[in-house]
Write a structure and sequence with these properties.
- The chain is an alpha+beta fold.
- The chain has one domain (about 35-125).
- The protein has helices spanning about 1-10, 40-55, 60-90, 95-125; strands at about 15, 20-25, 25-30.
- It has a three-stranded antiparallel β-sheet with strand order 1-2-3.
- The radius of gyration is 17 Å and the shape is elongated.
- It starts with a helix and ends with a helix.
Amino acid sequence: MVVALLRAIGVQATAAGSQLVVLGPGGPTSLFSSWNCIGWQSLVLLGLSMYVGLRSQSLREAQAQVVLVGILGTVLVNLLRVTIVCLLAATAGRWPAVIFHDYGGTLMTITWLFAYWTGAQRWLL
């Protein structure tokens, strides 16, 4: 899915298993994506926040919508995060990609969860 997003914005990329190769101005950049990079931590945080946020006596239909939007949104945020890491690695180099991976990705997840719960409380619950 990351390769499809990269190709959609005009970046040449390919994948083979857990290897991603992105063609940037400096030539091809090979990236390895392990199980720890795909965003399982954000799904754990989402689950914990849902445990607390859905304890009210809301309608089951509204709760199901909140769960669905939360899971889909978290998956999309993780796809965007990995795509940005690949773009940075191809264009700016290894260290900007590592810094974004380690810190920017965490900020993206936290920002997503705050926005998600604000919207869920306002429009769904």
